[in-house]
Fold:
Amino acid sequence: MTRKTARKLRVLVLLHKDLIPPESTEGYSEQQIAEWKTEYDVITTLRKLGHETRPIGLLDELGAMKQEIVDWQPHVAFNLLEEFHSVATYSQHVVGYLELLRQPYTGCNPRGMLLSHDKVLCKKILTYHRIPTPQFAVVPKDSKFKPLRKLQYPLFVKSATEDASLGIAQASVVTNEEKLRERVEFIHAQTQSDALIEEYIEGRELYVSVIGNQRLKTYPIWELSIENVPEGAPLIATRKVKWDPDYQKKLGVKTGPARNLPDGMEDRISRLCRRIYRVLELSGYARIDLRLRPDGRIYVLEANANPNLSLNEDFADSANRAGVNYKALLTRIVSLGMTYHAAWRG
Structure:
């Protein structure tokens, strides 16, 4: 444990007001616990580490958070917000407000959140830096669909801004113009966001956890596997694959260490992910999602600032495989938040 976090700290945990967890999981179903598991795991672990921890629920106003910061003067704000005012991309503005208040916080900085949340802008930046990412097009939500001439089927359709696989299903992979039009209209209607269309990359889906500010470390590469994929169905992380326990059991959905990678591939992927992290100006911790084609070519799907920190989920499990247990992981994240060189420290 570093000297910075060896002392007992005042930690203000920022979360959605509907996700403030109970003191205990006793009496709650697995489905109920899943809603606030990350929040519960983080808060209880911080308290086990001896830190004075206060959760504060936010929805659409920041006055209570500001008053808590002024009155209590927390050493650090542990940011678990995934949206603000029901908009995923607004969470970056909460972090910007923390910087205006000169309040240290965990996780990614506002610029990195902006670049990674905006999937279209992210892909433009990756393309500029010649980092392989699927060819793409965007259909704004208020515009009419026009046939695409430059992209080759199959194509993958998703929201340009939403996270957590919102709007992603088996029907997201389309093989003709009619299905493409239907899916674009579905994304516009369901997510109220622009539709991002990518060329679908066949191959292994890999996740790489990256942590650090200036000095970066990657944890062991994780892989999504689905044992009972229906014949002809694409291997994609749909919303049900990610969040529906019954569906996961039915299809044999698992994530774990990537095995039998080609010689030198692990180091190659690690270097690529550190480069992506720097190009997108990320800080704190992030997860990079990749596709590895059978021919050995790597494509970046997206970068996720502040990914899921639940105990026994991918980020924590990958860290644990590297010898960093959950308490040590949260301690490291807190330390990075307290030492991040924000502009106000200048």
